[in-house]
Amino acid sequence: MQGKKYGLIMVVALLVLLVPITLLIRSVDLTSPVFDSFGLFITLLTDSAGHKGFLITLAVLGVAMLRLPLSREAVLAKGLQLAVILLIGFASKTALKELTESPRPYTEYLAQAELIDSAENFYHLSAPQRDEVIENASHHVSTWRTLHWQGEKDYSFPSGHTIFVAICVAFFGGLFLQHRHWASLAILMTWAGGVCYSRLWIGMHRPEDLFASTAFVALVYIVTPSFPKIARLLVPYVPIRLFSQR
C-alpha cells in the first residue's frame, strides 16, 4: 500500500476536480448551438479516452514514464500492473453496464422530445430504429453531439472513458507526483478534467457515473499487485535501449 499512496492521492485529486466540473455543467442544454471549433475540441478530448484514441494516449504517457528515473525492473512491474488494471477496468465496465441498465442522459432528452416513449424504450428498439431516432433528433441537436450518440448506444453506468482516465491518473499521475514532474502532472490532470467534462457535455453520462467510476478504479488499483517477481524474470529479455540509463 505504501508504494501506491501517490496514485491514491491523485485519484482523490480527480474526485475533488470532478466537483467543480459537475457543478459547472450541472444542467446541460443538449439543444444549445455549438461552434465547430468547440465541437471539434470536445470530440478530440473524448476520443482520446475512447476506443479511437486510448492507445495513442497510452503511448504518449508511456513515453513520459520512460523519462522518469525508474529501473528496468520497476518499469516492467508497473507495465504489468497497468495491463491488469486496464483489463479489469474494461471487462468490469462491460459487465456493469449490462447489470445496471442505466439509460444514457441523451435518451431522456429523446423521450422529452417525444421521439421515443421513454428512455428505457430506446434500448428495446432495433439498431436501425435507434439510428433513425437519433437522426431525427439532429434537427434540434448539434451533430457534434449526435455524432457521439450514434457511436454509443449502450448503457450509461459506469463511464468507460472515466475509468480509463482514472486509471491513467492513478498510474501515471502517481508516478509524476512521486518524481515531482509537475508539468507532466498538470497536463495529465487538465486532460483528465477535460475528458470528464466532455462526457457530461455530450450527454453521455451523469455526475454520479463519473464519481462512481473513479472510486471503482481506486478500489481496483488498491487490490492489484505490482508483480515484481515476474518483472525480475522478464528483465533479461527486454532491450536496454527502451529504458533510461540510471
From TrEMBL:
Q: Which residues form the Phosphatidic acid phosphatase type 2/haloperoxidase domain?
A: 77-225
Q: What is its EC number?
A: 3.6.1.27
Keyword vocabulary terms for this entry? Membrane, Transmembrane, Transmembrane helix
Question: What residue intervals traverse the membrane?
Answer: 7-28, 48-68, 75-96, 155-177, 184-204, 210-227
* Gene3D superfamilies hit by this protein: Phosphatidic acid phosphatase type 2/haloperoxidase
InterPro entries given in the database record:
PAP2/HPO, PAP2/HPO_sf
**Family matches, as CDD domains:** PAP2_like
Q: Note the superkingdom of the native organism.
A: Bacteria
User: Which PANTHER family does the entry link to?
Assistant: PHOSPHATIDYLGLYCEROPHOSPHATASE B (PTHR14969:SF54), SPHINGOSINE-1-PHOSPHATE PHOSPHOHYDROLASE (PTHR14969)
What Pfam families does the record tag this protein with?
A: PAP2 (PF01569)
Q: Which reaction does it catalyse?
A: di-trans,octa-cis-undecaprenyl diphosphate + H2O = di-trans,octa-cis-undecaprenyl phosphate + phosphate + H(+)
- What is the protein's species of origin? Vibrio agarivorans
Q: What is this protein called?
A: undecaprenyl-diphosphate phosphatase
The record ties this protein, via SMART domains, to: acidPPc
Q: What is the lineage of its organism?
A: Bacteria, Pseudomonadati, Pseudomonadota, Gammaproteobacteria, Vibrionales
